[in-house]
Amino acid sequence: MGKADKKIKIPKSVRELKMSMKKFAKKNDIKISGKGLSKKDKKRNKKKLLKEYSQFAIERLNKAVKILAEHPDAKKINKVSEGVDNIISNPEIMDRIAKLYKKDKDEYENMKYFPYMIMNTLMYYSNENLSEEEREIAKDLNPEEMVKFCERILKKEIKRYENNGLSTSMAFTFASVIPTTKLFKNRKWYKTLITTMYDVAEKDDVDIDLIFKSILKLDKKSKFKKRKFLEDFFSEFIMTRSSNKNAKFTETQKELHNGLIERCLVYLNALKHKELKDVLKNYIKRRKNAEEYSNDGKRVIKFTDHSNSNSPYENIKAVVQELIADNANNETYLS
Question: Is the dihedral of CA 197, 203, 207, 210 positive or negative?
Fold first, then answer.
């Protein structure tokens, strides 16, 4: 377990999300079956169970989704994720949670992180390679209502994306993935944003500058700076793998891909010499770490291609040549 994992404190209440309705009923002495229980009592108790379990669920979801958003890669949160999945895969409870949220949305501020998890669940259960048990769960899901619930949660965020020029469908997609810049405290969300941009570009044109502008204007009175965003975004982008999948890109994905590479090179070249050197030294360090786990490979930008005499990127050329002169092994990672 990593240091980051150890710092995560998962409240007991959040761990309780895995509790089934049956166990909840037993724990809270709500009888829904058994001898001597009339149909009327059974109906009344079932209604009570749904009401109390839904309230129990939304209160814990509000805490759980924040933990999942802040620590997306930590192994320790697997049980939290399982608890959230337990609720999402229960249509009856999801329907009641949507109504509870509508009545008192200000009470559940962290629910803005929930749509990303809902949409991932819907995508998973739309897969053809499901087990029999999963197929039964998929049959009971109500995608249309779940999407409506997501739209209700993200109404403000979707509007902000739209106000910056995105279509309604694209605004919903990006709002569900990046509802707030607070997510970028964890580097994983830059990678998720990049992946989303390529996914959207499979069918639609993606205006890179418009996406950047929309994200930077998401949070009012935010101290999140454009400089920091671009630095972290492009530091993550240069770690993107170059694979055979690139050959299967649609025309709009190719346009996005080339546009990101061009903007990245222009951004890096405009940095001060020391700043660029620090960025590339960190890039080499991450490549080496990946290599230790047998997980390194070609990346989207081959920096040695921009270190020759014909390169228009003078700063990149100088820094790459300097790093190779410092350590000949650096050429391996910059190639």
Answer: negative
Tokens 């009888």, residue?
Answer: 31
Q: Using CA of residue 211, residue 217, residue 219, residue 224, what is the dihedral sign?
A: positive
Tell me the one-letter amino acid at 121: T
**Which H/E stretch holds residue 44?**
helix 39-70
Angle, CA 299 vertex, CA 294 and CA 302 arms, to 5°: 125
pTM to 2 decimal places: 0.90
Helix residue ranges, H only, 71-106: 78-88, 91-103
- What is the separation of C-alpha 258 from the centre of its chain, rounded to a whole number of angstroms? 23
User: 225 by DSSP, 3-state: which?
Assistant: coil
Angle, in degrees to the nearest 10, between helices 143-153 and 114-125: 160
Q: Of 279, 292, 172, nearest to 230 (Cα)?
A: 279
Question: Residue 312 in 3-state DSSP?
Answer: coil
**Which are the contacts of 85, defined by CB distance < 8 A and separation ≥ 6?**
121
CA-to-CA distance for 189 and 178, rounded, in angstroms? 8
**What are 255-307's pLDDT values in tens digits?**
999 999 999 999 999 999 999 999 999 999 999 999 998 988 899 999 999 98
Q: What are phi and psi of 142, to 5 degrees?
A: -120, 85
Collect all residues with Cβ–Cβ distance below 8 Å to 182 and sequence separation of at least 6.
219
Cα–Cα distance measured from residue 8 to residue 28, given in angstroms and rounded to the nearest whole number: 29
Q: Is 74 exposed, middle or buried (0-12, 13-18, 19+ CB in 10 A)?
A: buried
The DSSP line for 131-198 is -HHHHHHHHH--HHHHHHHHHHHTHHHHHHHHHTT--HHHHHHHHHH-S-GGGGGSTHHHHHHHHHHH
